[in-house]
Amino acid sequence: MSAVPFTKYESTGNDFIVIDNRKGIISQALQSNRALWARACHRRYGIGADGVLFLHKKPKFNFEMIYLNADGAQVEMCGNGARALAHFAASLKLNRGKNSMQFFSSGVEYQVKLNQGPKKTWPSIAFPRPNSVDAISLKSFGYSGPHLYLNTGVPHTVFVLATLAELKNLDIVKAALPIRHSMLFPRGTNVNFMAIEGPKIHLRTFERGVEDETYSCGTGAVAAACFYRMLLATVSRVTLMTKGGPLLVTFSREIPWLSGPTRAVFKGMLSLTQLSE
């Protein structure tokens, strides 16, 4: 097939190319073509996106999610992408009239609640309890404030800065690159910097695979909220202010739920032939 339909989504500024692949219109070989999907995500030569989401069938689940970063590499999880794909799946009636769904991504089962948030339009995703917490020491990077390594589906380092002004003035690319490519992380890591302002967290994230700051990062928000909860154990609800808008992480029996706005922006046809040239 030379052209395939797609929907462009954004979740607090984290943007995605969404493709319904339930009928296998994209072969496994084509789906694994990193150069093609990196070009599709390019903001000058393609559609422009932080990643690509494929919706697949999966027995006993509402759907399966396959996620590619902007560099075309498949990774285990994307929180904002999962919310976008859940919204897309519900628009295709894959929820079968229910307010909940189950989906599968890289060997992990995830739960979805629909119709959440102030306008009852937000999908909310439950994450497994973070693992590998503090398995890697971050002291060598020279930050005196609290810091932590944890995995929320993908690896994250989180650094707490002293003030909001310090966070706003941070040259995040310069600060994040040595950490992103450190020998401590053979597969790389996402890098988060946060500042605490009362009940809110202000968060900036440098994403592996995008190789730049994104407007928002869902797995990064979960990582930051989990760290905040470790610092203040009584917290059960955390609002995170990102460049692209607010995200909310709530805790139910120690399980973090990520929610926030997501929407379809436009639809189109993606020319695979032209992208391959």
Written account of the structure:
This protein is α+β, with helices and mostly antiparallel strands and 277 residues long. It folds into two domains: 3-127 and 262-276, Diaminopimelate Epimerase, Chain A, domain 1, CATH 3.10.310.10; 139-253, Diaminopimelate Epimerase, Chain A, domain 1 (Roll), CATH 3.10.310. It is 21% helix and 39% strand. It has helices at residues 28-31, 34-41, 79-91, 164-169, 172-180, 218-231, 272-276; strands at residues 3-11, 14-20, 51-56, 63-69, 74-75, 100-105, 108-116, 122-126, 147-151, 155-160, 190-197, 200-207, 212-214, 237-242, 245-252, 255-259, 263-271. A hairpin with a 2-residue loop joins strand 15 (245-252) and strand 16. The longest helix is centred in the C-terminal third of the chain and has 14 residues, at 218-231.
- Give the class from helix and strand content and strand pairing: alpha+beta
Number of strands: 17
Quote the distance from N terminus to C terminus.
15 Å
Question: CATH homologous superfamily of the largest domain - what is it?
Answer: Diaminopimelate Epimerase, Chain A, domain 1
- Which fold does the CATH topology of the largest domain refer to? Diaminopimelate Epimerase, Chain A, domain 1
Q: What is the makeup of the main sheet?
A: 17 strands, mixed
Q: What would you say the CATH architecture of the largest domain is?
A: Roll
Cα-atom radius of gyration: 18 Å
- Strand percentage, roughly? 35-45%
Shape: globular
String of helices and strands: EEHHEEEHEEEEEHHEEEHEEEEH
Domain module tally: 2
Q: Could you name the ranges where pLDDT drops below 50 across 5 or more consecutive residues?
A: none
| CATH C-level label of the largest domain | Alpha Beta
Average of per-residue pLDDT values: 93
Portion in helices: 10-25%
**What is the tally of helical segments?**
7
